[in-house]
Specification:
The complex is a heterodimer of chains A (270) and B (352). With 270 residues, chain A is an all-alpha fold. In chain A, 81% of the residues lie in helices and 0% in strands. With 352 residues, chain B is an alpha+beta fold. Chain B folds into 2 domains: 221 residues, P-loop containing nucleotide triphosphate hydrolases (Rossmann fold, 3-Layer(aba) Sandwich), CATH 3.40.50.300; 111 residues, Beta Barrel (OB fold (Dihydrolipoamide Acetyltransferase, E2P)), CATH 2.40.50. In chain B, helix 3 packs across helix 4. Classes of the chains: A mainly alpha (270), B alpha+beta (352).
Chain lengths: 270, 352
């Protein structure tokens, strides 16, 4: 057993080392850099009106895509796991597309659909709508990129649960909504929450697709990550890191929330 | 007839799950659908319940064709193979579910659930969640849940499959007694013939989507009507050149035979009851089976299996013994025939 102890220690230290180099050091650097010129500079950067606008836009895009993807995720996972139909496998694959293709391409797709050269442009013009280089475009791009998160969390869970319990309930005459509320939801709620958390984190950090459709209009179509990039490109390094720290703190809050939830579940409910 | 299936066909893609299934069941009977896995028994059960729809044919329950009646309106209780208890509900809520769906009043639900918990002997466990119950307890809860809304017909899919061997025996007796106490017509699916024989009033043997035979356990044992039934029931052994066994001659129409250990009597040489019909064989192996010995014999080049009581004189591998074979089931592709040893032959010969 001595050998396995050595192996165990080596594996643990490798994992810790890797996490420190790849995750902890960069995060600490962000905070250290942000506070390098003192707190007032840091505060100045994050209370800048453009930064606040960017934060608001980021939160709006995140909240909208979360709502849309939660609803879609529940429907899609329900359809895929509880019914057998032609093209079921294909649908599952389709849902994964945003994972597979580069966000930049996603952004370009929106330009080609809704932009000046896009086929939907005349229609949008007629109704006085702007999608590309405007807020709707940013929200669409965020939705696209975070599309699979929630359904991907739910599908395996609902598959594992199988259809037996639902079938049993349906056999006793329970309607769809009662079955969902009493049987499916209690089973998937933590998975759903986890999916929501992942989706939030991804939506807040989305850069590629949003960058393409945004047009970088300060105070209008800049999200936090884009704002950070602009600051960085203009050599406002401290400001860039200060604004970054907002995202880092939000991410840490999300992770803590997640752990609290997980702990509660293990202790109380089951 | 209470439940009738007429010419039911069902395909899953290219797989023929039900091939012209026709049978009927009397009210109050406990029926076992017995067959190997993939023989279509569960499909039959699910079609009766309304969980699957037959491609063609009629299902009639209590005189009404139920094909177009949804599962929830058929008045059927269903016990799933892995119970499908609602894992986020207590035992009480599980059993009460069907009654709540029917919007019965609270006082009635409480009374009815209490009654059922008493019936299944789980008093005091009504606040437990399914994961806090043993396999046997889960099964009882699933049973009570299915009975709660007073169904006319109870269907059980492999009710004992997920329970360990020891509890299973107990539970079989319990289920049989409880069903007869409640007096509900019931159909259960099993692949275990011991289970079917012990629990069911009548057995329906299925194979490759067809019904092979229906009858009481004793009938099925004594008079298998199809080659499959003969091979499937009992500890059956297939032998080809049965003409080499003493007391039997090869029937050209029936190239093969089925023999069960209980058809073989083994005695020490010199103790035979029918010395002229007994052959000499060798014991190749002996297995202790707890309440008896199982012997592997070779008689004139044919391998046989036989049982021997622990009370009889002990045998060893290599011993010479005297072997008498009472009967065989001869079969070809389409039919079975009972063949008695020549000694008894003048008494009867049964063609089926």
């Amino acid at each position: 057993m001595k050998e396995s102890k050595v192996v165990k220690n080596i594996l643990i230290s490798l994992a810790v080392l890797f996490i420190v180099i790849m995750l902890i050091v960069p995060l600490v650097t962000v905070l250290a850099y942000a506070l390098r010129h003192g707190f007032s500079v840091f505060w100045g950067a994050i209370s800048d009106p453009y930064a606040i606008k960017a934060l608001k836009l980021t939160l709006l895009a995140t909240a909208t895509s979360l709502a849309v993807n939660t609803v879609f995720g529940i429907f899609a996972s329900w359809a895929i796991t509880k019914f057998r139909f032609k093209g079921r496998q294909f649908l599952t694959t389709l849902i994964d597309i945003p994972f597979a293709i580069s966000p930049v391409i996603a952004g370009l797709v929106f330009i080609y659909v809704f932009g000046r050269i896009g086929w939907a442009y005349p229609f949008l013009q007629e109704h006085g709508l702007r999608v590309v280089f405007a807020v709707p475009g940013i929200i669409l791009a965020t939705i696209f990129v975070t599309f699979p998160f929630i359904s991907r969390e739910l599908i395996p869970l609902m598959q594992a649960q199988g259809t037996d319990e639902e079938e049993a309930a349906a056999l006793m005459g329970a309607g769809g909504f009662r079955i969902y509320r009493k049987i499916t939801l209690p089973h998937i709620k933590w998975g759903l929450l986890y999916g929501v958390i992942l989706c939030t984190a991804r939506a807040m950090g989305e850069f590629g697709a949003v960058s393409v459709v945004s047009g970088h209009l300060r105070g209008k179509t800049n999200t936090l990550p884009l704002h950070i990039e602009i600051l960085f490109n203009e050599f406002h390094l401290t400001a860039a890191f200060s604004v970054s720290s907002i995202l880092v703190v939000l991410a840490v809050i999300i992770l803590i929330l997640r752990n609290v939830v997980e702990y509660r579940v293990k202790k109380g409910d089951l | 007839m209470y439940v009738e299936l007429k010419n039911i066909n069902k395909n899953f893609g290219n797989f023929r799950a039900s091939d012209n299934v026709t049978f009927s069941i009397e009210q109050g009977k406990l029926i076992g659908l017995l067959g190997p896995s993939g023989s279509g028994k569960t499909t039959i059960l699910r079609m009766i319940a309304g969980l699957e729809n037959p491609d063609s044919g009629d299902i009639i329950i209590d005189g009404v064709r139920v094909n177009d009646i949804p599962a929830s309106k058929r008045g059927i209780g269903f016990v799933f193979q892995n119970y499908a208890l609602f894992r986020y509900m207590t035992v009480f809520d599980n059993i009460a579910f069907g009654l709540e769906v029917q919007k019965k009043d609270k006082a009635y639900i409480k009374e009815r659930v209490g009654e059922l918990i008493k019936l299944i002997g789980l008093e005091g466990l009504d606040k437990r969640r399914p994961h806090q119950l043993s396999g046997g307890q889960k099964q009882r809860v699933a049973f009570a849940r299915a009975l709660a809304p007073n169904p006319h017909l109870l269907l059980l899919d492999e009710p004992f499959a997920a329970i360990d061997a020891k509890v299973r025996k107990e539970l079989r007796t319990w289920l049989r007694e409880t069903i007869s106490k409640v007096g509900i017509t019931s159909i259960f699916v099993t692949h275990d013939q011991d289970e079917a024989v012990e629990v069911a009033d009548e057995i329906i043997i299925t194979n490759k989507g067809r019904v092979e035979q229906k009858g009481s356990p004793a009938e099925i044992y004594k008079n298998p009507q199809t080659p499959f039934a003969a091979k499937f029931i009992g500890e059956s052994l297939m032998i080809e050149d049965y003409g080499r066994l003493k007391g039997f001659s090869l029937d050209k129409e029936y190239p093969k035979a089925v023999i069960r250990p209980d058809f073989v009597s083994v005695t020490k040489p010199g103790n035979e009851v029918y010395p002229n019909s007994s052959a000499t064989g060798t014991v190749e192996d002996i297995f202790f089976r707890g309440n008896l010995y199982e012997l592997r014999l070779r008689v004139n080049g044919v391998k046989l299996t036989a049982y021997r009581s622990l009370e009889d004189e002990e045998l060893r591998a290599g011993d010479e013994v005297s072997v008498l074979i009472y009967r065989l089931y001869l079969y070809n592709d389409n039919s079975v025939k009972l063949a008695e040893n020549d000694v008894f032959r003048n008494v009867n010969e049964v063609f089926i």
